[in-house]
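Think of the structure tokens as a kind of shorthand, similar to the way a musician reads notation: each symbol stands for something richer, in this case the local conformation of the backbone. In the example below we present two proteins back to back. Begin with the first one, reading the sequence and then the tokens, and try to describe in your own words what changes along the chain.
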Amino acid sequence: MRHPLGQPGPPHLDRALMKISGANSFGKTNHGQRFPQAIAHRGYKAAYPENTMGAFAGAISIGAHAIETDLHITKDKVVVLSHDATLKRCFGRPERLVDVDWDYVSRLETIKEPKQHMPRLRDLLEFLALPANEDIWLVLDIKVSSQPSLPWLSLARPPPSKITQN
């Protein structure tokens, strides 16, 4: 893999980037030349509140090849899309996501216009599964708050019925 400006990158970095992306992170133009793909960091946040479905749809509509978003987990273990561990900056509420349940979070609207609700990871995955969005790739930043990562670990464990006894 080569640097977008044509210079070769460090071999160890190039190999790492290929492993992380799982594919070539460069697209093709109509003339067969390579160009870097655009990653919409938290969506199209110049026009929509960050990490919302409006921001993601807006980013894709203006040509983003990928969406980057942040994951937190609610008290009832719903994976939601938020950069911050609290609701303060985007929703004007003092609570931490890990201390509230999805039912509470789902009713909140962003401070920034146009008003949006906080989506779940499931909502974004369903949106990206639509035929028009099947080529959009996703970068997930799993956030671990100052609390121990026990909520995340509990999601990784199999249900008790699936654990075998020796």
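Once you have a description of the first chain, move to the second and do the same.
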Amino acid sequence: MNDTGTDPDGILLFEERHMIAIMLYLVDNDGSLKSRLYSAVSSNPRMPDKLDKLEKNGLIVQMTDGRGTRLYLTDLGKDICSLLKKTAETLRSRQTDSLQQ
């Protein structure tokens, strides 16, 4: 957060709906066409804005080819996804442990 108490395009970026889902979709579908991402995650009219934010923050790259726009995770995006997956595994493990007690 900065001095005004806001977090422009920092960790709070992931509080916006679909951001984590977009990233995790691309882990298994790197190079996916935008249209496939929309079908799999959401057809929300704000999806292009969300992709632009992720690109602005260096997490994805949008590349246009003859078939449409393809989406790729950057190295930073891959690192973030790895952390997200580890966090999910930790939470699942804790839930399983608490159910077994």
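Compare your description with these statements about the second chain. The first strand starts at residue 32 and ends at 33.
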